[in-house]
UniProtKB/TrEMBL annotation:
GO biological process, one term: DNA-templated DNA replication
Locations listed in the record: Cytoplasm
Functional note: A type II topoisomerase that negatively supercoils closed circular double-stranded (ds) DNA in an ATP-dependent manner to modulate DNA topology and maintain chromosomes in an underwound state. Negative supercoiling favors strand separation, and DNA replication, transcription, recombination and repair, all of which involve strand separation. Also able to catalyze the interconversion of other topological isomers of dsDNA rings, including catenanes and knotted rings. Type II topoisomerases break and join 2 DNA strands simultaneously in an ATP-dependent manner.
Species, as recorded: Bacteroides reticulotermitis
Cofactor note: Binds two Mg(2+) per subunit. The magnesium ions form salt bridges with both the protein and the DNA. Can also accept other divalent metal cations, such as Mn(2+) or Ca(2+).
Matching HAMAP family: GyrB
Identification of the protein by name: DNA gyrase subunit B
Binding site for Mg(2+) 1: 436, 514
Length: 652
C-alpha cells in the first residue's frame, strides 16, 4: 500500500527491542493511521481496542464478564474474567509473553486462538497501540494463583513482568491514561462508551458488560453505572431498534448458523414505515459502507420474496414492475458475521470486500426466509402486499422526482427563489445556512459573507420524513428547495432512493435555528431528513448546527456574549461583584432579536462562531433515536428530551 504500512515480524516473538521501539514510535508519530483520529473519536477508540481483546477471549469461550470503569482522573480500566494474557518467559525473546503482547505492534494476532480469532477492531492494532498512545499503562494478569504486573510509559516497560500478589481467579486488568500530548480531548464521554457497550452486548449474546463512571456519584452514594447483557442477542437488538415503530408483523425472523465456515447471525423485522434500515457488522464492527455480506443479504431477500410472490400468484394483477428497493421498505435488519481475515475497503474502511462471504449469507438467508414464508402464509401475504404497495408508490415517486430534477440547477431549472447563493463556486469553501424562518433568514442574508456563505430560509417546521412516504416528501416545497439548493440529484435509473452527492455545492451545511425548544425540534427534523435521505452528508462530516448565544451581557462599555447560564453568572461575578443590578443582560430568545452585525459576530463568522458537527457514532442507536423522537409514543420521547435537553434552562 503505502510506505507508512508497518509490517509485523513474521516469526512469533522474533522482534528485537529496536524494532519494537520503531513500531511504537510509528504509532505515536502517526496516531491517526492506527486509531482513526486524535479527537474524541480516537480517544474512545482506545477503550474499544482494549475491550476487543476481552471480547476475543469471550468468543473463545473463556470469559463472560467485562468491567469497564472510567476513573476519576479520566484513565480507563478494563477488567475481564478470561484466562489472562500468558506470562510465560520466552527464551528466545528474553521477555515475558505479556510484554510482547503489550509492546509489539500486531502481537495480539500472534496468539493462536483457533479459527474464531476474528477480532482486531476497526484498525486491528490492539493493545500495544493503546499502550504507545498512553502516558502510563498498567497491565495485571491473574493466572495460576498469582497476580503478575508490568507498567509502561508511552509504550515502554518500566520494569520486567513481576509477581505482585496472589489471586483465586483468572483474568486480565488493563488501566491506561491517554497521552495528553497526543489527544486533543482526554475527557471520556459516558454516553459514547455506553452506547458502544450496549451494542457489543447485543452482538455477543450472553456476555455481561458493566460500565461504571467513578466521576459521577448518584444521589444514593453509588457511582453512575450500567449493566449490559442480552440473552437473545440480535433478536433483542432488532426489537430495541424497532421499539418505537409500528410492527407490520410481530415476529422477528432470525437465523444463527454457519455457512462455508462463516458464522452468520441475522434478525429481521418488518414495520409499517417506508425506510430500509439494515445495520451490518463484521467482527463486531459496524460496516456502514456495507459490502459483500450486505449484497448477499439483499440478493437472497429479493430472490426469495419474488419467488414466493410469483409461486403464490400474488403478482398476477400487479401492473407496475417491482424493483429491489421495493422488497426492503419497512425492513429493519441486523446482520452480524464473523470473518477470520476481513478485507475492509472503502473511504472509511468499513466496507467488506471478502467475496466468499456473499454466497454464505445469501444461502443462509435464502433457506431461512423460504421456510418462514412457507410456514407463515398470513405474514407472508402481508410482506408481499407491502412490497406491491412500495412498487406502486415508487411509480408515483418517480413523477415527483422528475419534478425535482427538472428544477435542479444542472438541468437549467435554476436555484430556489428563496436561496441567496454565494459567489464562490468551490464546494469545499462554500457554506449553506438553513435558517429557521424568513425573518431570521433576512438578517442572515445581511450579515453573511456573500463570497462563501449562502442562505436558504426555511418555513418553520419541515416535513417529518419519518412519517411520510418517499414521494410525499419529494412533494414538499421545503425539501425540494433543500435538494435543489444542494445541487444533488436523487436516485439513479434503477429508481434507487440514494442521493448522488457528487455534485454537492457546499461542504458545510449549517442548520441555524432559535436557541429554544422549537428550534431544537426543527434541528431534529432537518437532521432526520439528512439521516434518512442523505446519510453520506453526515458520514462525510458536512452537517453542522450553529450555536447562537443565549445572552448579551453589558457593563458600561464592556460587552460579552454568553452561551450558557454559567458564563452569564461569571460575567455578573466578574463585572458586577456578584450582583445582577448595575449589569445589563439581554436574553436572546430568537435569532430575529439579533441584528445582522450581531448574528455575524456570534454565529456566522468562522473566526468566532462555534459549530457543532453532527456525526453518527452508532447508526443502530441513531436509527432507534430518530424513530423514537419522531414516532407516536410520548413517554420515551419526553424521557429522552429531559435527559438530553440543552435548553432546559429556558422558559418556553
Ligand atoms: C492468548 C492466549 C490465552 C489468553 C489470551 C491470549 C488472552 C488475552 C487477553 C487480552 C485481554 N484479555 C485477555 N485474555 C486472554 C490463553 C493462554 C492459556 O491459558 O492457554
Amino acid at each position: 500500500m503505502s510506505e507508512e504500512q508497518i509490517t509485523p515480524n513474521n516469526g512469533a516473538y522474533s522482534a528485537d527491542s529496536i524494532q519494537v521501539l520503531e513500531g511504537l514510535e510509528a504509532v505515536r508519530k502517526r496516531p491517526a493511521m492506527y486509531i482513526g483520529d486524535i479527537s474524541i473519536k480516537g480517544l474512545h477508540h482506545l477503550v474499544y481496542e482494549i475491550v476487543d481483546n476481552s471480547i476475543d477471549e469471550a468468543l473463545a469461550g473463556y470469559c463472560d464478564h467485562i468491567e469497564v470503569t472510567i476513573n476519576e482522573d479520566n484513565s480507563v480500566t478494563v477488567q475481564d474474567n478470561g484466562r489472562g494474557i500468558p506470562v510465560d518467559y520466552h527464551e528466545k525473546e528474553k521477555k515475558s509473553a505479556m510484554e510482547v503482547a503489550m509492546t509489539v505492534l500486531h502481537a495480539g494476532g500472534k496468539f493462536d486462538k483457533g479459527s474464531y480469532k476474528v477480532s482486531g477492531g476497526l484498525h486491528g492494532v490492539g493493545m500495544s497501540c493503546v499502550n504507545a498512545l498512553s502516558s502510563h499503562m498498567i497491565t495485571q494478569v491473574s493466572r495460576d494463583g498469582k497476580i503478575y504486573q508490568q507498567e509502561y510509559e508511552i509504550g515502554k516497560p518500566l520494569y520486567n513482568v513481576k509477581e505482585v500478589g496472589v489471586s483465586d481467579h483468572t483474568g486480565t486488568r488493563q488501566q491506561f491514561w491517554p497521552d495528553k500530548s497526543i489527544f486533543i480531548e482526554t475527557v471520556y464521554d459516558y454516553k459514547i462508551l455506553a452506547s458502544r457497550m450496549r451494542e457489543l452486548a447485543y452482538l455477543n449474546a450472553g456476555l455481561r458488560i458493566t460500565l461504571t463512571d467513578l466521576r459521577v456519584v448518584n444521589e444514593d452514594g453509588s457511582f453512575k453505572s450500567d449493566f449490559f447483557h442480552s440473552e437473545e442477542g440480535l433478536r433483542e437488538f432488532v426489537r430495541f431498534i424497532e421499539s418505537s415503530r409500528e410492527h407490520l408483523i410481530n415476529d422477528v425472523i432470525y437465523l444463527n448458523t454457519e455457512k462455508q465456515g462463516v458464522p452468520v447471525e441475522i434478525a429481521i423485522m418488518y414495520n409499517t414505515g417506508f425506510s430500509e434500515n439494515i445495520h451490518s457488522y463484521v467482527n463486531n464492527i459496524n460496516t456502514i459502507e456495507g459490502g459483500t455480506h450486505l449484497a448477499g443479504f439483499r440478493r437472497a431477500l429479493t430472490r426469495t420474496l419474488k419467488k414466493y410472490a410469483e409461486d403464490s400468484k400474488m403478482l398476477e394483477k400487479v401492473k407496475v414492475d417491482i424493483a429491489g428497493d421495493d422488497f426492503r421498505e419497512g425492513l429493519t435488519a441486523v446482520i452480524s458475521i464473523k470473518v477470520a481475515e476481513p478485507q475492509f475497503e472503502g473511504q472509511t474502511k468499513t466496507k467488506l470486500g471478502n467475496s466468499e462471504v456473499m454466497g454464505a449469507v445469501d444461502q443462509a438467508v435464502g433457506e431461512v426466509l423460504t421456510n418462514y414464508l412457507e410456514e407463515h402464509p398470513k405474514e407472508a401475504k402481508m410482506i408481499v402486499d407491502k412490497v406491491i404497495l412500495a412498487a406502486t408508490a415508487r411509480h408515483a415517486a418517480r413523477k415527483a422526482r422528475e419534478m425535482v430534477q427538472r428544477k435542479s440547477p444542472m438541468s437549467g431549472g435554476g436555484l430556489p427563489g428563496k436561496l441567496a447563493d454565494c459567489s464562490d463556486k468551490d464546494p469545499i469553501k462554500c457554506e449553506l445556512f438553513l435558517v429557521e424562518g424568513d425573518s431570521a433568514g433576512g438578517t442572515a442574508k445581511q450579515g453573511r459573507n456573500r463570497a462563501f456563505q449562502a442562505i436558504l430560509p426555511l418555513r418553520g417546521k419541515i416535513l417529518n420524513v419519518e412519517k411520510a412516504m418517499y414521494h410525499k416528501a419529494l412533494e414538499s416545497d421545503e425539501i425540494r428547495n433543500i435538494y435543489t439548493a444542494l445541487g444533488v440529484t436523487i436516485g439513479t435509473e434503477e429508481d434507487s432512493k440514494e442521493a448522488n452527492i457528487e455534485k454537492l455545492r457546499y461542504h458545510k451545511i449549517i442548520i441555524m435555528t432559535d436557541a429554544d425548544v422549537d428550534g431544537s425540534h426543527i434541528d431534529t427534523l432537518i437532521m432526520t431528513f439528512f439521516f434518512r435521505y442523505m446519510p453520506q452528508i453526515i458520514q462525510n462530516g458536512y452537517l453542522y448546527i450553529a450555536t447562537p448565544p443565549l445572552y448579551l451581557c453589558k457593563k458600561g462599555r464592556i460587552e460579552e456574549y454568553c452561551w450558557t447560564d454559567a458564563q452569564r453568572q461569571k460575567f455578573i461575578e466578574t463585572y458586577g461583584g456578584g450582583s445582577e443590578s448595575a449589569i445589563h443582560t439581554q436574553r436572546y430568545k430568537g435569532l430575529g432579536e439579533m441584528n445582522a452585525q450581531q448574528l455575524w459576530e456570534t454565529t456566522m463568522d468562522p473566526e468566532h462562531r462555534m459549530l457543532k458537527q453532527i456525526n453518527i457514532d452508532n447508526a443502530a442507536e441513531a436509527d432507534y433515536v430518530f424513530s423514537m423522537l419522531m414516532g407516536e409514543d410520548v413517554g420515551p420521547r419526553r424521557e429522552f428530551i429531559e435527559e438530553n435537553a440543552t435548553y432546559a434552562n429556558i422558559d418556553t
